[in-house]
Automatic annotation (TrEMBL), chains A, B:
Keywords, comma-separated and alphabetical: Kinase, Transferase
UniProt domain Carbohydrate kinase PfkB: residue ranges: 38-279
Recorded GO CC terms: cytosol
Species whose genome carries this gene: Gemmatimonas phototrophica
Domain of life (superkingdom): Bacteria
Record protein name field: Sugar kinase
Length: 307, 307
């Protein structure tokens, strides 16, 4: 059996406006996007919380594809809701409303049967909760985390402590600069690696992603899509493809991690083609493989420059 | 003998402030950066204008490396001067002062012996002057042009006319969006190709460059430098490496054009390591080849994702 991935993150309801349309109360949240993406590669164990108003039947397609929902707590109260809008350039979301609901009292409780998960992804939640998860799991092979500007500002000491306990962090370029106070991303990545992680994945949205290790840099472009429909969830879908592929292969060699970054980029590129996790649920493994080949074509050149 | 490249552009004096230092009245201008870069690959024929205050002896290193200055007019008046500043993030220049001087009356006059140049680069000048150059040259194999926001605003009809006469255009992402009124770069590139050019090179600064053709897209990242010293001239150095390499090889196949984009990216990455064209004059062909190999390493991955 393939290595399962444990993900702890949000399960939300998103209402999104883009120049191309509107979606109301659709599946959202980092845990949802990550799971939808990673489940193409390996079994997923999702830990999160929803209110008693959550349309859990909408998660059935995830369960059907190997996402174990035993860690999804349902508590009394309203679910995490986010309402946002993207303007013409689709580059940044404008948050119109955030309603944390039951998520504001989330205390991750990892079911016994998930505690041996060899691959763990701590999606973007309070670093104190991310640390609590690590107290509950037993010797994972790879622990990865995500974070955001809000935690960098409000929970810096805990976030820096977390860095000492993870193998890999994914964050975007603005967050990397904010966290490290280095404008230059090479320096920012080194600052982070000095705090613990062996791998730093810096996501630049439409400009691609860098993977830094102690002695190498890998870059994967974003796929130049002609029609980006809704950017919500691209980063978590990227992480799901990346970690899901690593777990499925169980291979943490540099060459396989590079391939995993491209797989993640492919998954991010699918995620933005439709609202919510809709496109991620439609695609097949053949679609993914074909897109990875397109990435290969996109950057392929022969370095022999003799004239 | 290798194919020469004719370049028509500015030869200026730059005064630049960056977070790392100041340089006063150093060599600048699109023609200067292009020539400094292209001359690593092939003979260059430079057409431009300077005032009688220009320290032409500072161009001797260019002449020594095969830049023919017979087309550099010296006229009475003061030279083109630009004064600019880069803030901490180095992403965009703040122009403090532009003094066009003799450049404001520039009428390119292509010397007879340059009119057969097989490769022509029309650097960023008034599209009406770019068109005048094309009336003077005889059947070049490849004509490329650059442009900027100022001409897109003030000379749109002439710029669109120019597009019908060039094989290739280089411009940055903001300019591509401004010219085409498409936010999406794939659509922007197609809009431009519909006006004439077979190749569209969209430069994204620190985010790399795309080369679009009718049926392919190639992407080259920017080199992740730890120390960017002065971004001035990066785009023209890129163009110099790109066109210079194409001219030297005389090979316009897709695979060679991809290699040329990477050579251009390498030259752009050297240009920003020191003030003015200083670094471009220091480097050797071995340095360039080594950096091209580093680009290869930066994007290398094996697309076989079988588990």
């Amino acid at each position: 059996m393939k290595n399962p991935v444990l993900v702890v993150g949000s399960v939300a309801l998103d209402s999104v406006e883009t120049p191309f349309g509107k979606a109301d109360e659709v599946l959202g949240g980092s845990g949802t996007f990550f799971s939808s993406s990673a489940s193409h590669f390996t079994p997923v164990q999702l830990v999160g919380v929803v209110g008693d108003d959550y349309p859990v039947e909408k998660l059935e397609p995830l369960a059907a594809r190997g996402v174990d929902l035993a860690g999804l707590e349902k508590v009394s109260g309203s679910s995490f809701r986010w309402r946002g809008r993207y303007r013409h350039d689709l580059n940044s979301a404008e948050t119109l409303e955030t309603h944390l609901g039951v998520f504001s009292h989330f205390r991750p409780n990892i079911p016994e049967q998930f505690r041996n998960a060899p691959f763990v992804f701590l999606a973007n939640i309070d670093p104190r909760l991310q640390l609590q998860v690590l107290e509950q799991v037993k010797k994972p092979r790879l622990v990865a985390c995500d974070t955001m500007n809000f935690w960098i500002e409000s929970r810096r000491p805990e976030l820096v402590e977390l860095l000492g306990h993870v193998d890999l962090i994914t964050l975007n370029d603005a967050e990397a600069r904010q966290l490290t106070e280095h404008t230059n991303l090479v320096k920012a990545a080194r600052w982070i690696m000095d705090k613990g992680p062996k791998f730093v994945l810096i996501k630049k949205g439409e400009h691609g992603a860098f993977m830094f290790t102690r002695d190498s840099i890998f870059f994967a472009p974003a796929y130049p899509l002609e029609n980006v429909f809704d950017p919500t969830g691209a980063g978590d879908s990227f992480a799901g493809g990346f970690i899901g592929y690593l777990a499925a292969t169980g291979d943490l060699s540099e060459s396989n991690m590079r391939r995993a970054v491209v797989v993640g980029s492919a998954m991010g590129s699918f995620a933005v083609e439709k609202f919510s996790n809709q496109r991620l649920l439609e695609i097949t493994r053949a679609d993914i493989d074909a897109r990875v080949q397109e990435f290969r074509q996109l950057v392929a050149f022969d370095a022999e420059i003799g004239e």
